[in-house]
């Protein structure tokens, strides 16, 4: 982890500086979209229920009183305000905030936003050039429009679980919520495209993202293979369906990745790495097409050979031969590695209860510099007072009255130290 948390924000030219986003979404896909925009410099105000906040404040390992590891992974660089959007007062405040914002993100069930007075046509009447991004499970115009969307369900329905894992295994989900992850990225791309268009035309846009659509899209070349074949393609687990050898292998003392990408590399692999030139000289294995065709004969031989060498020796020989390779690390090992530390991918951020908490840094580098963490993932409602006073000039008495009605919650007043 980086030794210092000092961020040189003044040196960064944030592409979305000045853009304001209302993030009404919860859980993963919508919050990820909002976080991407926040990473690029947008002011993102996360609107949460006064009592429970985002569902993920109760998922994962607890950090402080209102945050968890799950929540923190999707909400850096945002401010949090609380509003009960089931109350007329909460919706009224959101309507009053809206003219100052450029983008609104939500993941209500289809029809839910309209019932609250927060549908696209309703908000477009207040803010004609609004970019409105709605994330749902399924096509809003189809018969399943009102079904709730859950990553695991859609991994199953979209065929993703059927392509994951080894051939002798039952369908297997991905280790992370891949459908949510991809949908959030696609949603951010769509918002950026809409912002670009609005700069040229002055027009807003309705963006609709369906988890199922993203799940089908992410099947990629496997999906097209299935259509060509007329049935599911074979599953190869950690191996590649058409390149051999290409996958995870067990050395004498641990796993490694070997990715032989062409015939020249295979020649070097046989002669310089496993010291068996006779293998590449065998016509059954001399080309990748033949190796893939005869993989059942080749792979057991290679696995035995690879298993006879120490991992570090193999990695040294593979690197010298110019063959892509790498250790298979445990998750904690990868996160605490020198590679991760040098890259600045993690920061220790101040936390009012835990003291500090690790937070992922944005993956983007612009002009050679990684974008910084401007705000740690916010405690529930930490920005309610400051944001509403700044944007709506509500005074303390008005805020206290709204809190008494259950419309919002206020963070504790900042303590004043005595000199």
From TrEMBL:
Protein name per its UniProtKB record: Formyl-coenzyme A transferase
InterPro entries named in the record: CoA-transferase_III_domain, CoA-Trfase_fam_III, CoA-Trfase_III_dom3_sf, CoA-Trfase_III_dom_1_sf
Gene: frc_12
Species lineage: Bacteria, Pseudomonadati, Pseudomonadota, Betaproteobacteria, Burkholderiales
Pfam family of the protein (one): CoA_transf_3
Keywords per UniProt: Transferase
EC number(s) recorded for this UniProt protein: 2.8.3.16
Keyword Hydrolase: no
Residues that span the membrane, as ranges: none
MF (Gene Ontology): formyl-CoA transferase activity
